[in-house]
Amino acid sequence: MKALDFEKPIYDLQEKIDELRQLAASTDMDLQSDIDAIEARADMLKAQIYASLTPGQIIQIARHPNRPNTLALANLLCSDFVELKGDRCFRDDPSIVGGVGTLGQYRVMIIGHQKGSDTKEKIRRNFGMPHPEGYRKALRLMKMADKFGMPIVTFVDTPGAYPGKEAEERGQAEAIAKNLKEMTGLCVPVVSVVIGEGGSGGALGIAVSNRILMLEYAVYSVISPEGCASILFRDASRAEYAAEKLKITAQDVVDLGIADRILPEPLGGAHHDWQVVSETIAAALADELDRLSALSREAVKADRYQKFRSFGRYKDTAIQAVSALPSAKSSKSSKKKL
Amino acid sequence: MKALDFEKPIYDLQEKIDELRQLAASTDMDLQSDIDAIEARADMLKAQIYASLTPGQIIQIARHPNRPNTLALANLLCSDFVELKGDRCFRDDPSIVGGVGTLGQYRVMIIGHQKGSDTKEKIRRNFGMPHPEGYRKALRLMKMADKFGMPIVTFVDTPGAYPGKEAEERGQAEAIAKNLKEMTGLCVPVVSVVIGEGGSGGALGIAVSNRILMLEYAVYSVISPEGCASILFRDASRAEYAAEKLKITAQDVVDLGIADRILPEPLGGAHHDWQVVSETIAAALADELDRLSALSREAVKADRYQKFRSFGRYKDTAIQAVSALPSAKSSKSSKKKL
Amino acid sequence: MSILDWFTKDDARNSRYEERLNIPGDLWAQCPQCKEAIYLKTLASNFRVCDCHYHFRLSPEERIQMIFDDGSFSEIDTTLEAVDFLKFADTEPYSDRLKKAKKKTKHADAIVIGMATLHQLPVNIGVMDFGFMGGSMGSVVGEKIARIIEHAIHNKFPLIIFTSSGGARMQEGIMSLMQMAKTSAALQQLSEVSVPYISVLCDPTTGGTSASFAMLGDVNIAEPGALISFAGPRVIEQTIRQKLPKGFQRSEFLLEKGMLDRVVHRRDMRNILTTLIRLLNPHTTKKDVV
Amino acid sequence: MSILDWFTKDDARNSRYEERLNIPGDLWAQCPQCKEAIYLKTLASNFRVCDCHYHFRLSPEERIQMIFDDGSFSEIDTTLEAVDFLKFADTEPYSDRLKKAKKKTKHADAIVIGMATLHQLPVNIGVMDFGFMGGSMGSVVGEKIARIIEHAIHNKFPLIIFTSSGGARMQEGIMSLMQMAKTSAALQQLSEVSVPYISVLCDPTTGGTSASFAMLGDVNIAEPGALISFAGPRVIEQTIRQKLPKGFQRSEFLLEKGMLDRVVHRRDMRNILTTLIRLLNPHTTKKDVV
Ligand SMILES: [Zn+2]
Ligand SMILES: [Zn+2]
User: Fold this and answer.
1) Does B90 touch chain A (CB under 8 A)?
2) What is the pLDDT of residue B334?
3) B44 lies in the same domain as B102
């Protein structure tokens, strides 16, 4: 397991504990009290470190190469998951995957970004950065789910849509835009879980959902802190600072009223125990799907529209109030002639 | 104007008439009676030739480079035609064109194959042989028409869908198949006019219509006579014979119950007078659209389904009858266990 | 009955199938791909798949017995037969070709349709027969496909069609072209009542068949190595005047190009199909599944 | 009133527009494309288009006066203003940037919305202002777009939006990202009541704006030479470590790639838009048109 830099002290202690254990085993010495003491220290240190992570450190966890990924979760959640491929137009994009399975009492369509774990797979899956055909495959599968009355679960984990020549040529903007629009028209419940990196439009392209859940150390941002730093601060080294200002952690995104719920991770992060994470997710999904499935098809759609319609913070100087939930009608009093 | 080989005698006479006219003009001789005589012979010859065209000769007219084409007809039919482009996915295919305009009292969407007239344009338009993106553009425009309640007119004129490497890679089969299916779901009237060559699936891909009209010398075939000859007869030179056997002329296709109506062409073919042809088409379209517009959206769709559902000639040995209009239910008596 | 039960009781199926075929052990076939000789008995017990993964073409009977529950298939519309309404003759009259094909295949035309069960789940099926005039689609094939789709519309059981066809049947002229629209139109109606359709594309699926119902599955599955195309490789090579790359227009190529959901080995076909129809069908009641 | 009448009485518009602007004849601008100097007066009478076809960027006022019927525009929702709810500061606090932009443009944010007429046909319009913080989309832009769409849903008049925007407004963090979904969601509702939406993409339209409402027109039109992209050219060049070809991500390129219906010279914009809204809108009564 790759140790993140701020985890170094914990791993150092863990190493010492392992050494002591080996020594105890090979020499028959009784070192248990020493081991216990260091373990206690390690636990305290862990609790301290993980209780006060900076946004920059949280991003490192969100990007950890061993974090549970969409295909792994799909197979942990559904014993009968069947992957389905292809956009029926140009290519199967391996950076977005999808398929059907049984999740508790629901037949579901699961769709998500897939970054790849080893180097070869990472390259094949373009580090989880989709081309337009990835979004088109996702939309095809969502429409299939809508047709067959299957709730949709999406797992968000991407640095962003791929900023490449071919992606632009084949309509990256169009593909994402179309998904944003068409997802609003779905009549089945859609629940998204940001499991790692929620990178900008590339994340949103599969996340126009009735419920947005975030794993504890997942992030969701309009732009990568690195991108923000180099554009706004003209200084890429200020990414840590940008990460703070952009408000990208699960808690921030919940506080802004965008994410609905934070799903706790095992101490140290989701990569330490996939099984536990999948159980947490399964329980949360069952919960949300139970509630959403009680609604009519039209109500499910209306619920999703209202959620996204309400996003925004601005003031109306005519009524002197900062509004996060504007009415659909504009006030007649604010007309002016050009 | 390119003379087709069987038209040679007519053009020879026409040349002679022109010579006599010039002679008369330059020498002040009175040659009118000679001219009249030859003209009368030319008219008789024309009438004879065009009254007894073979299918092979009709194909030559159908393929004449100066036949009216989709864009020309769209502009003759609608004073306000606006072309619309693009499949919103990969490319604008210039071999299928489309756009909106006013046709009599109707706002219509016009879509059709476009072969190109000069060499450069022929190449750019791939000789009217679409890639998958052409069919996808057509479908996009048809769905737009459906959304805005605009009747659809399609002009069929293609040797066939392009049999090339990229066309296969990008899903030629999928694109055509999808159009066949989705056109059945349209709730606005669709009228197709085969204006030149109706080449196989590439033609059908925009012609699943409530009414199928054919210009007098247009053809519609499951395979080009050349293709048929080389596959079935293993002898490409037998194309003339294949053209006869395949039953591809407007009259044949009407006799088989597939086309609804033949639109007469000026003597010698549509390429002799585009204006007259466009007036014939305008009148026929107004007529068909008047009738179809009287139906409800659901009835328009059902009418189209019933039309295509009825196509087929076979016999049911259980009921000892050759049926062209089978019932939707299969007879229970014809079950057997494997 | 649990999902696991379904799958475990399947093990005995192949040996039974093999017994039923009663093939003497000393007959063999040559694999067109690796050129190895294989005993027919071995081939039969391996789903007629060579060790090199070459999938031998199957008759409708073979395919139905391999995939569906034993004895569950009941064929319908066996009495529909082709008519030579164009009096078509190429190197041989159409009517003679029909007679020969009927004699050879024991079928009336290039498709068999009916109802069967798959792990007790009822399905509507169509299985094409490449042995009958290259699986070509004329009026009878089109009519039978439309009819089995209409059965699915009425009984709300999923539809599975196995394709193997060279395309439209030229001997029926433009009428065969119209079967593309007729079958696709019926699928549009099926789609509107949300009954799942799984298309299983087998070697070869080309021309008018691929450009209509074969490509229109909610889920498109192909057997490995199947040729799937609109225009055939020979026609394309004439067009571009170049050799096509190896694997062009084969299942795996189409999977990469986004046209197929999966390429499935014949051994796994029964289970994948079962899982898919169980998951996709909104009309399945708990009673049907348990 | 006939279609021809509409168009003929337009000839006098430009000179009137020019008079109104009252530009002294001795001021000039340099064309960023051909580098020629052009008198502002000449530029104004040419729709602010250079002879080389370079389309100068327009303020919302200029665009509205060029395209819509004189005096027909009535702006709504002028009182919505941005809030620095993240207390964001990059090289400059967001609140300071907002103040400067308001002072410079005389607008509250990067879009102006309202109703106007086009050859007497009523339309709902939105016009973005690149001069206001690069036309970036924060909560106010998103809200105003959603509101003008909702007006279209209620009054059934067509919607035309002119985009010119660098994308999402980073200073509002994730909230600006959500405006992409909010505007697209509203367009889905518009689509369901069959009211036409024409998107006119002007230079530049990139990032979150192109990947939401800008690309979602029933008809997508662009001005010539406009930069239209998801990722900007600089980012892509860093990704592929190569220079991009000339014309990449420009209107004409996108037209070829199937993303646009037309590229329309500013001179023809008014007439094309009129024809399109007249033809597409199923809610237009005869009374509206005649
Ligand atoms: Zn082999
Ligand atoms: Zn210039």
Assistant:
1) yes
2) 46
3) no
Q: Which residue of A lies nearest to B172 if distances are taken between CA atoms?
A: A89
User: How far does residue D37's CA lie from ligand 2's centre (Å)?
Assistant: 8
> Which ligand is closest in space to the CA of residue D51?
2
Three-state SS for C201?
A: strand
Among candidate residues D214, D200, D206, D203, the one with its CA nearest the CA of residue D262: D200
Shortest Cα–Cα distance, B94 to chain D (Å): 9
For residue A315, being part of any structural domain is answered with no
Question: How many beta-carbon pairs under 8 angstroms link B with D?
Answer: 64
pLDDT of residue B320: 64
How many angstroms separate the CA atoms of B148 and D287, rounded? 18
Q: Please state the domain count of chain A.
A: 2
Ranges of residues in chain C with a pLDDT under 70 are 1-26, 285-290
Q: Please, what sign has the CA dihedral across residues D208, A58, A159, C256?
A: negative
Nearest to D176 by CA among D86, D97, D107: D86
- pLDDT tens for A44-81 read 988 899 888 999 999 999 999 999 999 999 999 999 99
Residues B40 and B71 in one domain: no
Whether A320 maps to a domain, the answer reads no
C42-87 per-position pLDDT tens digit:
898 899 999 999 999 999 999 999 999 999 999 999 999 999 999 9
Under the banding of pLDDT at 50, 70 and 90, the label for residue A330 is very low
Nearest to D126 by CA among D141, D105, D139, D108: D141
Q: What is the pLDDT of chain D when averaged over all its residues?
A: 91
* CB-based contact, A41 to chain B, within 8 Å: no
Q: Which amino acid does the sequence have at C121?
A: L
Q: Domains in chain C, start-ordered, CATH in brackets? A: 58-280 (3.90.226.10)
Q: Which candidate from B162, B304, B312 shows the least CB-CB separation from C179?
A: B312
Chain B contact for C236 (CB, 8 A cutoff): yes
- Report the alpha-carbon distance of residue A165 to residue D247 in Å, rounded: 13
pLDDT of residue A323: 58
Q: Ligand 2 centre and the CA of A233: distance in Å?
A: 33
Q: How far is A215 from chain D (nearest CA, A)?
A: 17
**What pLDDT digit, counting tens, does each position of B186-233 carry?**
999 999 999 999 999 999 999 999 999 999 999 999 999 988 888 888
> So what's the pLDDT on residue A26?
87
The reported pLDDT for the residue numbered B326 is 43
| pLDDT score, position D10 | 52
Are B167 and B46 members of one domain? Answer: no
A174 contacts on B by Cβ (under 8 Å): 88-89
Q: Whose atoms come closest to the Cα of C36: which ligand?
A: 1
The structure tokens listed for A93 are: 């994009």
Is the pLDDT at A4 greater than 90? The verdict is no
Q: Chain B contacts of D276, Cβ < 8 Å?
A: 82, 100
CB contact under 8 A, A80 and C258: no
Q: What is the pLDDT of residue A46?
A: 87
Say yes or no: C194 contacts chain A, CB-CB below 8 A: yes
Residues A37 and A136 in one domain: no
Do A29 and A87 reside in the same domain of the chain? no
Q: How many CB atoms lie within 10 A of CB A93?
A: 26
Residues B14 and B77 in one domain: no
Do B71 and B123 lie in one domain? The reply is yes
Give this complex's ipTM.
0.93
Chains near B (3 or more Cβ pairs under 8 Å): A, C, D
Residues 59-98 of C with CB under 8 A from B: 61, 64, 71, 73-83, 85-86, 88-91
Size of interface A-D (CB pairs under 8 A): 230
Q: Which of A114-123, A146-155, C236-245, D253-262 has the lowest mean pLDDT?
A: C236-245
D248 touches A: beta carbon within 8 Å: yes
Look at C3 and A80 and tell me if their CB atoms are within 8 Å.
yes
Beta-sheet pairing, D159-165 with D111-118: unpaired
Query: What gap in Å lies between CA C31 and CA A55, rounded to an integer?
Result: 61
Report the residue of chain A nearest D144, measured CA to CA: A330
The answer to whether the beta carbons of residues B135 and B205 sit under 8 Å apart is yes
For residue A288, give its domain range.
61-309
Residues of chain D scoring pLDDT < 50: 1-8, 15, 18, 287-290
Q: C93 has which bridge partners?
A: C89
